[in-house]
TrEMBL record, chain A:
The name this protein goes by in its record: Periplasmic binding protein
UniProt keyword annotations, A-Z: Signal
Signal peptide region: 1-18
UniProt cross-references to Pfam families, sorted A to Z: Peripla_BP_2
Listed InterPro entries: ABC_Transporter_SBP (IPR050902), ABC_transptr_periplasmic_BD (IPR002491)
Domain Fe/B12 periplasmic-binding: 22-273
UniProtKB/TrEMBL annotation, chain B:
Lineage: Bacteria, Pseudomonadati, Pseudomonadota, Gammaproteobacteria, Pseudomonadales
Subcellular compartments: Cell membrane
Annotated protein name in UniProt: Hemin ABC transporter, permease protein, putative
A Pfam family matched in the record: FecCD
Keywords of the record: Cell membrane, Membrane, Transmembrane, Transmembrane helix, Transport
Record Gene3D superfamilies: ABC transporter involved in vitamin B12 uptake, BtuC
Protein source organism: Marinobacter algicola DG893
Cellular component GO terms held in the UniProt record: plasma membrane
Length: 285, 345
């Protein structure tokens, strides 16, 4: 009887704990991770960089952009914890939210596989899903290793990454970006080594880059319109079909869909023969 | 030309109406927002008691109250500055942006947002969390003083030259901001876009203490310029003949605008239309006499901005709209309606 009572009490405690845990996630990749770990029910709100998975996001209150978080709006959702990145802001707002008794957790910005896996494990601890996180990271690590090994046989291809997002038009992904980090992780090179950050795409630079493969990251489906970029469709990589258009968050978020991102890019990197052609072509110029 | 006699409402009535408006706006601002605060809790907290909900207490004292005060001060400073410049230039279309305060502040703020981690790392290390507001304040006031310096010859300020210098400096500052925008990464781009739309959402007591005194100084000192500015309505030479030191009037007005608007912009970002529309609107109601107009602008500008802020925080709750967006969305059509009515009547 006493045992049953204790068990019941323990059960009541864990349920209460789960019910009490109200998490606001202000980062697309973190939101994805929380849902992927099966803790979506703890979400009390998300920021506007969170889009995936859409059926979960659609139900949740939006607290605005992660660099312009509202104090009162966040407190009104009565969260126990705010999980976000070092990019979130403004500083004062985060301090105020913490002062109001919310546990504010700021995770580092992730730009490589190791820290992506570390972030998933950390989020797993924060939402009480350590085992699930262990399983997910192991699966991702395995898939990524397999992909990397398949890439070893291919010479380092030069890949062009374009980002079609918001009202900024089409941007080139240069150094110090998640796009570059994705290429580096796969042992690939940027087709535009002189560009730093995301920069508006110059049509001539596109032609001159002559990449071996083209990756187009879209914030929303259909945002990139090939008919507006005849230069791009002139490129050999485009004509030979070494190209892919996919969701930007999946490709560049370094979240739980990391393996899918690697798979997407690896699939369009051409074989050795084509590469050596490209190399000789480049040298001939 | 309007004169003191042309005002349409007697002063006590005018102030009474504006004070009632402020009281209504303040009540609304204290009681509305994303976080639900019950009326009982509100009454209990205002009378010094402890509410049932500790977070409600935090929201009231640390979020809504500093935000209300900063809104009142900012709206007042912007409107009074607009009135000062409209009087000085004898042009109802003058607004504080005209003499470079906003564009100079924007250039400095954007520089901190974009280069804070690289070229200006020394500045951000030195000033910490105040890097942006301080830079914006300094940028805004320096730009204005530069415009004034260019227009200042032989102890006199040439108002037409001031206007032209302002336009040229604005163009340079906008180009500089554009250059920085080009250099910005995606995050900085979003941050600076938000900054240029203005916001009271991040108001804290520290902001009130830091920027409040400058704005308050503008509000308190500006009415001293009321009589000479009335004389300016008749033309600068007339004001001189009436015994006012026009050079002193111009210098004081520009300094007050630079400090008041510089401080406002520093803590809230760019909030448009208040400086242009509020003086214009109140002139229609109370006449052009600055003795009534300047204090009326302080009250009306504060009330209007606080009301706009109430809208900004509830329309898309729990997120918030930038307040500059709200003032422009409301102020633009309203201003147009005003112009149309005048045209047809």
């Amino acid at each position: 009887m006493r045992l049953i009572a204790t068990l019941f009490f323990a059960f009541a405690m864990t349920t209460a704990q789960a019910e009490e845990s109200r998490v606001i996630s202000a980062d697309g990749a973190i939101t994805e991770t929380i849902v992927a770990l099966g803790a979506g029910a703890q979400l009390a709100g998300v920021d506007t960089t969170s889009h995936y998975p859409p059926e979960v996001i659609a139900e949740l209150p939006k607290v605005g952009y992660l660099r312009a978080l509202p104090v009162e709006g966040i407190l009104s959702l009565k969260p126990t914890r705010l999980i976000t990145t070092e990019e979130a802001g403004p500083e004062q707002t985060l301090e105020q939210i913490a002062a109001a008794g919310v546990d504010v957790v700021r995770l580092p910005v992730v730009r490589d596989v190791t820290s992506a896996l570390a972030r998933i494990r950390r989020v797993g601890e924060l939402v009480g899903q350590q085992d699930e996180a262990k399983r997910l990271t192991r699966d991702i690590a395995e898939e990524v290793d397999t992909l990397k090994q398949s890439m070893v046989q291919k010479p380092p291809a030069r890949v062009l990454i374009l980002l079609a997002a918001g009202d900024h038009g089409v941007m080139l992904g240069g150094k110090d970006t998640a796009a570059d980090a994705l290429l580096l992780s796969l042992g690939l090179q940027s087709a535009l080594p002189d560009v730093t950050g995301f920069k508006p795409a110059s049509r001539e630079a596109l032609l001159a880059s002559n990449p071996d493969a083209i990756v187009i990251a879209e914030a929303r489906p259909g945002q990139f319109r090939p008919e507006q970029w005849p230069e791009l469709t002139q490129l050999r990589a485009w004509r030979q079909g070494n190209r892919v258009t996919a969701n930007a968050m999946m490709l560049l978020g370094f979240g739980p869909r990391l393996a899918e991102a690697f798979q997407t890019v690896a699939a369009i990197v051409p074989d050795e023969t084509v590469i050596s052609d490209a190399a000789s072509e480049t040298h001939a110029h | 030309m309007h004169t003191e006699e042309a005002r349409r409402l007697p002063a006590p009535l005018a102030y009474g109406a504006l004070l009632a408006l402020i009281a209504a706006a303040a009540t609304l601002a204290i009681s509305s927002g994303a976080y639900p605060v019950t009326l009982q809790d509100l009454a209990r907290m205002i009378s010094g008691g402890v509410p049932n909900d500790a977070t409600a207490q935090f929201v009231l004292w640390e979020v809504r109250l500093p935000r209300l005060l900063l809104g009142l001060l900012t709206g007042a400073a912007l409107a009074v500055s607009g009135a000062l410049l409209q009087g000085l230039f004898r042009n109802p279309l003058a607004d504080p942006g005209l003499i470079g305060v906003s564009s100079g502040a924007a250039l400095a703020a954007v520089a901190v947002i974009v280069l804070g981690g690289s070229g200006l790392a020394g500045w951000t290390a030195l000033t910490g969390r105040w890097a942006l507001p301080l830079a914006a304040f300094i940028g805004g006031t320096l730009t204005t003083l530069l415009a004034w310096r260019i227009a200042h010859r032989q102890g006199q300020t040439n108002v037409a030259l001031l206007l032209l210098a302002g336009i040229a400096i604005n163009a340079i500052a906008v180009a500089g901001t554009g250059l920085l925008t080009y250099h910005a990464d995606d995050n900085a781009l979003r941050s600076l876009t938000f900054w240029t739309m203005g916001s009271l959402a991040h108001a804290q007591w520290q902001d009130v203490w830091l920027a409040g005194p400058w704005m308050l100084a503008t509000l308190v000192i500006a009415p001293l310029l009321a009589r000479p500015l009335d004389a300016f309505l008749l033309g600068e030479p007339v004001a001189g003949h009436l015994g006012y030191s026009t050079a002193w009037v111009k210098r004081s007005a520009i300094l007050l605008v630079a400090l008041g608007v510089g401080a406002a912009v520093a803590v809230t970002g760019l909030i448009g239309f208040v400086g242009l529309v509020v003086p214009h609107l109140l002139r229609q109601l109370f006449g052009a006499g600055h003795r009534i107009l300047l204090p009326a602008c302080a009250l009306g500008g504060g009330a209007l901005l606080v009301l706009a802020d109430c809208l900004a925080r509830v329309i898309v709750a729990p997120a918030e709209l930038p307040i500059g967006l709200v003032t422009a969305l409301l102020g633009g059509p309203f201003f147009l309606a005003l112009l149309m009515r005048n045209r047809f009547s």
